[in-house]
Amino acid sequence: MSTSRTSLGAPSGTDGGRGGPAPFRTATLGNGLRVVVAPQPQLHRTHVALWGRVGSRFETREDNGISHFLEHMIYRGTRRVPSAHQVNLAFERLGGSLFASTQVDHGIFSLTLPPESLDEACALFGEVLSEPAFLDIDIERGIVLEEILEDLDDDGHQVDADNLSRALIYGSHPLGFTITGGQSHVRAFDEGMLRRHHARHYTASNLVLAFAGAVDEERALRLAERDFGRLPRGERITAAAPEFAQKKPRLKIIDNVSSQTELRVCLRALAEGHPLRPALDVLMRIVDDGMSTRLYHRLCDARGLCYDVSAGYDGYEDDGVVDVAAGVQHARAALVTREILAMFEELAREGPTSDELATARRRIAWDTRSLVDSVEETAAFYAAGLLFDRFSTPEQHAAELTAVDAAGVREAAQYLARPERLDVVAVGLLEDGEDDRVRAAVDGWRPGATS
Asked: Quick one: 214 and 261 in the same domain?
């Protein structure tokens, strides 16, 4: 086997109580495929996952949605296993559970199974991913078209608040595309287009293979070479960075007959590799890391304005978005918008309390220790780090976060809390002047800490 190997040690405290550091190994196969193996011998499951640089941000306006459609088609089978049912049956007879997902900038295919099934299942996994036969395209086309309908109203208009917010933020840049693409695109995809997309993206230069759980390092590397060592090397896929030319807040209101208004309050954020990234992580913990944290307490517990509200960060190699999502009564859309913006303004002005920071640090430490309990999360942690060239150990990651102080969190909040970074989407029935009140809340936001 032609590999170059680096053996690294993960932190003590992530070993499931075995008394020493949990080892992992990275390797590069002869074709350039990067592999990471993270044994967790205290567990009774094995996980293998293939992560790839594929997704809507690597598409064009003409072929938007093809990465997602290809994801569906890959599990449709090979010439030897010629149907989706036979593929699923073959893995499930081995105790396996298949998973696949297409995101904006990456795709994931994974398999969780009993350790004794790994040899046979990995061979089939490699075959399915390397040699799709593109069978039953029209059947899968119908399934994907049904999926797209979930985001449209009765007139065929886009009403998904997440899709609308990204389109508002990024415009014609691929980061503003939907992952599923449009109905006309899906109807036009054919075998030739799918094969070309597969040949371009499913290459060793654009993939990372991860093993975790009850798996031996040497055995995993042998299986990697056997089942994925013949992938073509290919060329690493790149994408153009989005511009940031926004000068003032933006608002998009979409009329939609529904019981609530779906609200997205978005702040254009920083890229994954930005020096403030650890501070942003801690800020997001303080904003929304449970029902006692600032966002839920402010809107739900203290004011009763929402049943549920959440905040998240979508980070990319060259950009990022922090958004708050809430389903609210139509007549409360402006009030909830103001409360969300006031929360970020306060954090930019005052930073977190000492109790908030201490709680965030404790939860970071706990999450780091508990990583070893999940084969899926362990594999995802290492695979994402390799795929996006930001590899670290859980210990290194936790140390970065726990080193963030209140001033760092405040600086991250100040980075976000700027009118020119604000984009808001409201999908619902904003009547009796509520649309004007939302517009006033958005246009009138002038955080004093960043003026």
From this structure: no
Tell whether 314 and 185 lie within a shared domain: no
The count of domains in the chain is 2
Give the neighbor-by-neighbor strand order of the sheet with 250-255.
Answer: 250-255, 422-428, 261-268, 320-328, 309-315
222 and 116, same domain (yes or no): yes
Does 276 lie in the same domain as 212? no
The closest of 104, 50, 7, 117 to 380, measured between CA atoms, is 50
Cα(39)–Cα(57) distance, integer angstroms? 33
Beta bridge partners of 28: 4, 34
Q: pLDDT for 190-249, tens place per residue?
A: 999 999 999 999 999 999 999 999 999 999 999 999 999 999 999 999 999 999 999 999
In the DSSP assignment, the letter for residue 273 is T
pTM: 0.92
Residues 223 and 291 both lie in one domain: no
The residue range of the domain holding 189 is 3-228
Nearest residue to 388 (alpha-carbon basis) of 271, 253, 258: 271
Say yes or no: 220 and 339 in one domain: no
Q: What is the pLDDT of residues 362-420, one digit of tens each?
A: 999 999 999 999 999 999 999 999 999 999 999 999 999 999 999 999 999 999 999 99
* DSSP calls for 37-82: EEE-TTSS-EEEEEEES-SGGG--TTTTTHHHHHHHHHTT--SSS-
Centroid of chain to Cα 61: 22
